[in-house]
């Protein structure tokens, strides 16, 4: 369940459904958008299947509401989206809004789809923990080489997981890790007790958490405050042999320092779904490191995720049209 935002940011101007115009910018197939038409037949809707359609269709429609999906490959057309005339509320797919920042909160309200991708990302993190503890990468290499060689495995119960960032993704990781008997510590900008987390501390105590953690999971949003949050000092504080998992953004980590730590310690293994430069260049050392799992920023893209985004948007649009607070309003100063 995704909680309604308690943000003090101004809400978008409320409109009667019959007077609302919606611009959808996504390459999704028609059937994913059918729920919007079915639930809100009175709304005038135009769909942009490519970024270069946004400006002309936006100028013609002058929508008050925009639902924007981040298509890949290619950069997100931030200036074009924010310049659409008449738009008062933009909902983006995914949780991160760094590609849209900054925006003027007096002119437009931005909400995200936080929570939709939390479980698959947490599943990836737990899968990486189990794979490393069970030495799955080693056994796969041995199988490919037809080598029969014994290796002892480890139990994950009783291990300590440190989660930096306790939003929807971090909390899902905490719940799943705790259910497997792992001790969970958390770092959060505003520390409050949370289910499944033994202790939640503020950023000033992050190094204390890193020193205790057999597994470090990073899920913070990408903002100026979190850029290179996991720097050389933070990496040096990590427990020898630990597993490092990045589910945030590549810019949150000092990648040269991470590479050095993977080669010489203290980090034993890493599972990385995000990188500072994407696609990851062929010459990146990460490709050839046997203690690194590289995935192409795809773990949150599960089957029918588009429908989940649309259903959340429909719920939010219904609340907005009824004059209720919408979900997931983003503060551009905080990035979430």
Task: Provide structural commentary.
This protein folds into 2 domains: 17-116 and 302-321, Rossmann fold (3-Layer(aba) Sandwich), CATH 3.40.50.720; 118-294, NAD(P)-binding Rossmann-like Domain (Rossmann fold, 3-Layer(aba) Sandwich). It has helices spanning 30-39, 54-61, 78-82, 118-133, 136-144, 168-179, 206-212, 232-236, 255-264, 305-321, and strands at residues 21-25, 44-48, 65-68, 89-92, 109-111, 160-164, 183-187, 199-201, 215-218, 242-246, 267-272, 292-294. Helices cover 29% and strands 15% of the residues. Residues 1-15 have low confidence and may be disordered. The protein is of the alpha/beta class and 336 residues long.
Per CATH, the superfamily of the largest domain is NAD(P)-binding Rossmann-like Domain
Any idea what the radius of gyration is? Answer: 21 Å
Would you tell me the structural class of the helices and strands?
alpha/beta
**Overall helicity:** 25-40%
Beta-strand segment tally: 12
The neighbouring-strand order within the major sheet is 8-7-6-9-10-11-12
> From N to C, what is the helix and strand string?
EHEHEHEEHHEHEEHEHEHEEH
Q: Give me the CATH fold name of the largest domain.
A: Rossmann fold
Tell me the number of helical segments per DSSP (H or I, 4 or more residues long): 10
Mean of all residue-level pLDDT scores? 92
Q: Which overall shape is indicated by the principal axes computed on the Cα atoms?
A: elongated
Strand content: 15-25%
> How does the major sheet shape up?
7 strands, parallel
Unreliable runs: 1-15
How many angstroms does the end-to-end distance come to? 17 Å
Q: In total, how many domains does the architecture comprise?
A: 2
For the record, the CATH class of the largest domain is Alpha Beta
- Reported CATH architecture of the largest domain: 3-Layer(aba) Sandwich
